């Protein structure tokens, strides 16, 4: 498990998430242009990856909109060399009274279409699970097809790990050739329906990861900092942002830039460098076109 020091640490900023809105925090970027500018300001302060969810016209609802995804990727590329990590999670819907996240479709075709925009990196959700009051749908046929398509397009998957069984499933998919062996593992702690955000749980999940993989972690809400500190001590990369945490401290709303600034300070105080986007590409094995 050991402590890894003096290496570049990758900082990801998760700009808004599927639930982010200005009602919850007025600093949340919700338009395409706001996301580009906010990501750029985070880049200037040390973030090398921007994780994005596109918003619908109401500026609150998450939607799969390929035009918006392309606009953000192209717009940010004009400003800097930041890596864009696009969410492939499903849209919210209702099926026979059941709230779902995803499609009643084994291949989740709308979600697969995101890959045609060729971002450098995308999220890859493993489990079908209760996500709050919703059922998050991730069928095996979709996981296999998405993993193969990512390899075909040289897109790096970021495997979202909510529970121990997700690590086992991901390892199987890698062994079977459906997922790239250099996939990045993101340990997601504190999500409703997933593993609670505690230091013990983080250590347990990290210890269960396949040997030698790249990994990152985050904790929701008040466990944000304990998970960040422990992740650094365990040699992982870190994620911050308004998707995971709306507050800098108790009762004090924050911004993505402020969270990235703190993360960069913590990384440097720990004794590591803050990875540039190109260093992150090298560490993660992202092929540059």
Verbal overview:
There is one protein chain. With 289 residues, the protein is an alpha/beta fold. It has one domain: Aldolase class I (TIM Barrel). The chain has helices spanning 32-44, 66-77, 109-112, 140-153, 164-175, 199-208, 224-234, 256-270, 277-284; strands at 8-9, 11-14, 49-52, 83-86, 92-95, 98-101, 121-125, 129-131, 134-136, 156-161, 184-189, 215-219, 237-240, 247-249, 252-253, 273-274. The strands form 4 sheets. It has an 8-stranded parallel β-barrel, surrounded by 8 helices. Strands 5-6-9-8 form a 4-stranded mixed beta sheet, with no helix packed on it. Strands 1-16 form a two-stranded parallel ribbon. A hairpin with a 2-residue loop joins β14 (247-249) and β15 (252-253). α1 (32-44) runs parallel beside α2, α6 packs parallel to α7 (224-234) and α7 runs parallel beside α8 (256-270). The protein is globular. 45% of the residues are buried.
